[in-house]
What does this fold into?
Amino acid sequence: MQESGAQSAAWFDRARKVIPGGVNSPARSFRAVGGDPPVVMARGDGAYFTDVDGRRYIDYLAGFGPLVLGHAHPRVVAAVRQAAGDGAMWGTPAPAEIELAERLVHTIEGMDQVRFTTTGTEAVMSAIRLARAYTGRSVVVKFEGAYHGHSDGMLVKAGSGASTVGTQDSLGVPAGVVRDVVSLPYNDPDLLKRTMQEIGDQVACVLAEPIVGNMGIVPPESGYLEAMQEAAHQAGALVIFDEVITAFRFRYGAIGPNLGVVPDLYALGKIIGGGLPAGAYGGRYDVMQYVSPLGGMFQAGTFAGNPLSSHAGLATLDVLAEEQPYARMEQLATELETGIAALAQDYGQAITINRAGSALTVFFGSQTVRDYTTAQAADANKFARFHRLMLAEGIYLAPSRFEALFVSAAHTAADIAETLAACKKSFMQMA
Ligand SMILES: Cc1ncc(COP(=O)(O)O)c(C=O)c1O
It folds into this structure.
């Protein structure tokens, strides 16, 4: 098996001396998949990465979600070049952020107004603060294994990188913060209902991803989101959908309304910045009136709505609106899903694949994955081996069994075929 190349190893040696663990986000580490060094990348182009040793990979990481058009889409690059030439940021209102806000408000059902942030973490954090301001209550109900960024309260039983590296309950989160967060198993409407009956009068919001992306892909079971909304609203709490991954990933817009529920507030990020840092929160007009300088809920950001991110986001949304690549992306993801499932059968690998549109997760194990407990039951060692083998074949998967494979608009049928050939070799070696 080919391990990381000499240049990657040399760069990573330098990295770990000056950056804790050598990475600027724990999810980038290879600790959960057989150890460091990770691959150090040099450039991205469409569906491909090239590392510092000159090796090419088919990329299914998609930057953890934002790169729905693949790397360096010419229209996004042109928009960013133009914006950079005009001055990267001004700290004043600017046309691009206003146009992007209009685009979101006109596209997303229930988004009457929107406020930009710089990250998804801030988007969720601010939406929660707003829900607390609006309701005058403090408790947040969320779901085990979901990842909503790294603000203090969201690191109670968190998923994604936090669960991958074993810090879903992070050190440094004050007990007072933990007391105001209730984490429940996903896809359990009865428990949610009972909880809301017991403590609903203290609950500011129920916060969920309408399709979970951070314990691997876990879709909501039939009627679950409706039950969530009913339980929240009966208690006078708001529903916040964290659509940082899902918005513009599965369709041109948010996914909540398509699944039958328009939330009171949304948190957005990733794709809306076209690969540059961006986040946003927004929703009901009456609730958004609480945001400063109109209302008393303070939230701010030096780089929020900056021209570079706004132009990159607008260019990305333009391409998505014009090309509507969603059916084609889903078709390719379906080919990947059925191909991997057939190979697993042929080579005696017990796996479960959860897929939503163009995103899927391969769990090693035969149990249905519907919540964090069942996601955790998947075999971590087998995934780690699969990850290393696929990497050696030039297929870049997220280095965690709790992440998704994202098919982008840049992937082709030939990429899927190459991926399945690599999968065949990997399963043969694992058999
Ligand atoms: C669903 C969800 N919410 C929030 C975040 C946090 O976004 P950011 O990393 O931009 O702070 C993430 C990041 O992966 C996410 O997947």
